[in-house]
From TrEMBL:
Species of the source: Ruminiclostridium hungatei (Clostridium hungatei)
Keyword set includes Transmembrane: yes
UniProt keywords, alphabetically: Membrane, Transmembrane, Transmembrane helix
Protein name: Uncharacterized protein
Residue spans crossing the bilayer: 7-28, 40-60, 67-88, 100-119, 126-144, 185-204
Length: 227
């Protein structure tokens, strides 16, 4: 079995796992605005993780440029023809906030995947796309959008102030088991940005201890995922 065939099979396997997990989550009782526990939180990330792996493993360098361009347009087409259409429908029908939020919860990771897909089609290494996926999802769950949305309200609503308790930020609440205060939310967001910086440092700094250890063990030189 050639390396390309092996990579394609791994990619297809990852797609199947991602698809099966996504279908299960969409029909799951726990697929709700409120996150029951950390197990539910991390399980909801499974489709994203395997989709990123599928993108990383697939040998895009063997695909012609016109086909890769069509792939990228198709990825945009899914968001445009389904996501935008459904957002318009939800606006017209004035659906509940939970329905709207769950749609955004589906579309936002898809945008990250579409960007990762485009990066791989453009020639970016699997390792770099994997890191992009990791830091993007950490950025997404960091709570930065919750913070910026407050400043949008401040700019629009006269006299609006950021609430002292962030009872709407369920992805934060699930980590501490209680509603975070404003200052705790700031720390929560900052920690995620520190993690992103740490990932980038460990991945790309030539002198970090982890990279020296991996080189001494011959891991980096022999790891084909790094190519």
């Amino acid at each position: 079995m050639t390396k390309n065939v092996k990579d394609i099979l791994i990619s297809v396997f990852c797609v199947l796992i991602a698809g099966a997990a996504a279908l299960f989550i969409l029909s799951w009782d726990e697929h709700a605005l409120k996150i029951a526990n950390l197990g539910v939180f991390f399980f909801k990330l499974v489709p994203f993780v395997f989709a990123i792996m599928a993108i990383c493993f697939f040998p895009f360098e063997k695909i012609s440029t016109p086909v890769k361009l069509l792939f990228c347009v198709s990825a945009f087409g899914v968001f445009f023809c389904y996501g935008v259409a459904k957002l318009i429908y939800y606006f017209i029908e004035q659906v509940t906030y939970e329905e709207f939020y769950l749609l955004l919860q589906l579309l936002t990771p898809f945008i990250i995947l579409a960007l990762a897909f485009a990066l791989r089609c453009g020639g970016m290494k699997s390792k770099d796309v994997g890191i992009f996926g990791a830091i993007s999802i950490i950025f997404m769950i960091s709570g930065i959008e919750d913070l910026t949305s407050q400043y949008v309200r401040i700019a629009i609503v006269p006299g609006y102030q950021i609430p002292e308790n962030w009872d709407w930020a369920n992805h934060m609440t699930v980590f501490l088991g209680r509603v975070l205060t404003k200052n705790e939310a700031y720390i929560f967001i900052a920690v995620h940005f520190v993690i992103i910086a740490l990932i980038l440092y460990l991945a790309y700094s030539k002198n970090n201890p982890l990279k020296r250890l991996l080189k001494s063990k011959g891991v980096l030189e022999n790891n084909e995922f790094n190519k």
